[in-house]
Amino acid sequence: MFDLIPFAHKNVNQVWAYILTETLKRLGLNCVVICPGSRSTPLVVAFIQQIPDIEAISILDERSAAFFALGRAKATGLPVALVCTSGTAAANFYPAIIEAKESRVPLLVLTSDRPQELRNCHSGQTIDQVKLYGNYPNWQAELAVPAPDMRILGYLRQTIIHAWERCQIPTQGPVHLNIPFRDPLAPIPDGIDLSNLQSQFYPEDFFAGIVTTNIARSSFPIPQEWLKSERGIIIAGVAQTQAPEKYCQAIARLSQTLNWPVLAEGLSPVRNHASLNPYLISTYDIILRNQQLAKELTPEMVIQIGEMPTSKELRNWLSTTQPQSWILDNSHENLDPLHGKTTHLRISVEEIENWEIGNGERGLYLQNWCKIEAKVRKNIDETWVNIDELIESKAAWLISQILPPRTPLFISNSMPVRDVEFFWKPNNLQIKPYFNRGANGIDGTLSTALGIAHHQQSSVMLTGDLALLHDTNGFLIRNKFIGHLTIVLINNNGGGIFEMLPIAKFDPPFEEFFATPQNINFAQLCATYNVQHELISSWSQLKDKLKLLPKQGIRVLEVSTNRKLDAKWRKENLEKFGADIRV
What we know:
583 residues, alpha/beta, six-stranded parallel beta sheet, 21 helices, 18 strands, 35% helix, 15% strand
């Protein structure tokens, strides 16, 4: 494993530092400026092992070293790494970092630090280094403490790749990584058994996919490995776009060129432009609950478009199978929460429309996906058609088929967004999904929905009771609101999502501190704000209310369900839909 770095097999810090420096070398780093100190020892040893591929320059004065690095970066146009020990050494980099920010010069600042247990206790040479440089870095983060775990090493590699990119896009500038190390710092044995790690680590596989060419591209030639692989999937993730039809057409063209299935998140417009894509897979979360199918459908390659879907089943599957992955997204964000073998292509999917590539034959892998999708979808649809009881999950399935075309739909977090992913039926209604999936909180959902609906065509919101109650002051916007918003309120008197967690089995404290039922009379609440309220007693009634939406005002359509029965139904049925299906 560590033939090229003699000390790494003795010390987890050196393994960590090797991954960091090797990743930077493969990205194209060719210069590091190092200031002397103890806490940075693992980094210094690892960078020295990278000579001559990376030039290592030792400079005593941190302020001088930082400006020197700034000069090198100006001259080459490439990021230069800057290393120091813990304490006030890092503070001396500040003036150069300000200059790098204002003059748009790429610097990768690596400040060594003590671990959390040695902070805020008067341990020597320790100050608060987290966000030390305020808002001047393009991006900043504190790394985890080194650990001998393959997935954690994957996190380190991907974070370094992201830091390298943020030095350069969307605008060149400084990036700050604060890096804690525990003793021992020198390359001596630390008592941690690394033999298991050695048996799992294959350098060329681990570092595969790191891009060394210029990251900022206006076009990108399609990788030959895409064209050669039959076992590939396209993930159409969480996405909001101003031109959904063009977005969906681009995904459809890529899918049909490669003959790969498209696993479309419920929040993606792809599910609402179904006729564009004959290889659309909407039931992947349920399919992947069947362990045999999950194994047989393991992909070699993945193209992720936009953010990763909500589905925990999908995430666990990809994390376990570790396919080679590409992310198509023209933002500067790191959209890889799984820390896989991932390359970020900083382009939008629409930009691939001009690629001149040929079509291949429809393979068995794609056929299997499509056959399984048809069977699972049939099971879901037949089940819901025959259920008259007000079960929470049916709302998402029903709404996907009855809204007026092009209706803006805001989907609240917690269970509504998950039910949309599970059950939202592909359609050609061109419904426009909106959501707050940045931080995934329930705060501000009503106000957000009203902002979306303002001056638009009549809009709809799907929400739970706690999310609505968390933002009832949003109703105060009513007098300024121009347009219409229908709120489909799933009232199960509490946090339904917590019923899906292990803590639900422990009561107390579950009901009071997690489910937190509020026992609110929503008819009275709506009357207080002069908002129309209707209690829905059947699915046919809800269907009638949504077929033709009003043009003005706000109304709440309350669907009262039983939280315990809702959770029980999901637990009993989600896996059943795909349980008896075989390839």
